[in-house]
Amino acid sequence: MNASRTARERVRAELIQEITTIARRQLATEGASGLSLRAVARDMGMVSSAIYRYFPSRDDLLTALIVDGYNAVGEVVERADAACPRDDFTGRWLAVCRAVRDWALAHPHEYALLYGSPVPGYQAPVDTIAPATRDTAVFGAIIAEAHRAGRLSPPPVCPEPPVAIAADAEAVRALMPDVSDDVVARAITIWTGLYGIVNFELFGQFDNVITHRAELFEHNMACLAAFIGLTG
Amino acid sequence: MNASRTARERVRAELIQEITTIARRQLATEGASGLSLRAVARDMGMVSSAIYRYFPSRDDLLTALIVDGYNAVGEVVERADAACPRDDFTGRWLAVCRAVRDWALAHPHEYALLYGSPVPGYQAPVDTIAPATRDTAVFGAIIAEAHRAGRLSPPPVCPEPPVAIAADAEAVRALMPDVSDDVVARAITIWTGLYGIVNFELFGQFDNVITHRAELFEHNMACLAAFIGLTG
DNA sequence: CCATCGCCAAGAGCAGTGCTCTCGGAAGTT
DNA sequence: AACTTCCGAGAGCACTGCTCTTGGCGATGG
């Protein structure tokens, strides 16, 4: 029957859920390299080989955690954006920046798994691509809507973008239609700038140098907003 | 005698050198997590326990590689800067940016060890601090000398930096005397921006999105130079 | 209702890891 | 020549990811 089969499937799904939950807890305390299938099995009162019924390899478990992580940061970013007045574009940008940083500080090991050095030998499967673009889509929407509302006027400090990046810009424009190549390039600049400063804070480059990190971050993001020409 | 003692010391130093060389080769091919003391020992025809006479733990070997890595990128940056006319500040900035990116692309695993996710449980000892600031010192010098030469005029796009970061700015000013808090904040922005884009390129965030990476990088760095007000 | 098939936990086992300990020999010191 | 120090070798511990086999339990089909 379908019912019984779904019962089987249900307990299976629940076990998978429990495995990822325990794995995420381990990831949070030990870090990615300390994630051990055997330890997860021990925590569940199972034998290590049983785990392999649900995750064929450690990398598959990592993939599940990565997908969860991208979705978590994506959701946090979407919520932060949604909580802002639609026409406060600078506010929306700052809100999503704070959301990213706060989530990163709260889940440093998960963040490192997403945006840090890739695990050697690990090739991100296609399943991770879609969740990985959730936050980026929000950024793109903010820029696109600000542009459409006429609230985007980039100050003329940048040189003209080279023609070589026109093709890439065309692809990126899927996220933010109608903006110029110059704006696309600036968007990439502030996008990488956001994650660059979060990386430096989390990965230790600010140690012994910068102490008022929240204030610096806030100011930095405001400057990047001004750099791309967000007004208000 | 001193001579014999130094003979002992010399063969010891040579062995340490050989260990780090082999370890660096392994790091380049396998990545940090694939670095194995036993494999290094095998490559040297030693038994694994003998390695511990020279490096008390795997982390100590990692530390040696990290120090070497910081010095390598520091030297590359210094050379790139030194090859430029002293008063071509924009050119110097772009040259060091390219040097960082080229080195990162040539030594991805070493770069990841320096600027990627920290190895869990690994605490960078004080020995790594000084080498880690070699590249930063070059950046600071470029900004400072441009300011002194009157060739630094930041466009007025940024809000005023908050007073909270004044203390940090004072510390950073050791690298670039006499500049304003605003310039310090912008310097941090372009500094994190440089490594942010290199991180994204190396760690896979540009995959399936950006193909003309050298051109985008070049343009991006030129924009950051304009952002901090480098003229010429 | 019974036989069958498929899923799954358990255990043993392999090859590898970091690291510790002991032992014996060689090199340097007095 | 005796002694101390250093160092390589080997065995061993606890751990890892992963594979294979075994046996049982539950769902399925006749």
From TrEMBL, chains A, B:
Record flagged with keyword ATP-binding: no
Record InterPro entries: Homeodomain-like_sf (IPR009057), HTH-type_TetR-like_transc_reg (IPR050109), HTH_TetR (IPR001647), MT1864/Rv1816-like_C (IPR025996), Tet_transcr_reg_TetR-rel_C_sf (IPR036271)
PROSITE patterns, per database record: HTH_TETR_2
Classification via Gene3D superfamilies: Tetracycline Repressor, domain 2
Transmembrane segments: none
UniProt DNA-binding region: 36-55
Keywords: DNA-binding, Transcription, Transcription regulation
GO molecular function (one): DNA-binding transcription factor activity
Record's keyword annotation contains Repressor: no
Location of the HTH tetR-type domain: 13-73
Protein name (Swiss-Prot/TrEMBL): TetR/AcrR family transcriptional regulator
Origin species: Microbispora oryzae
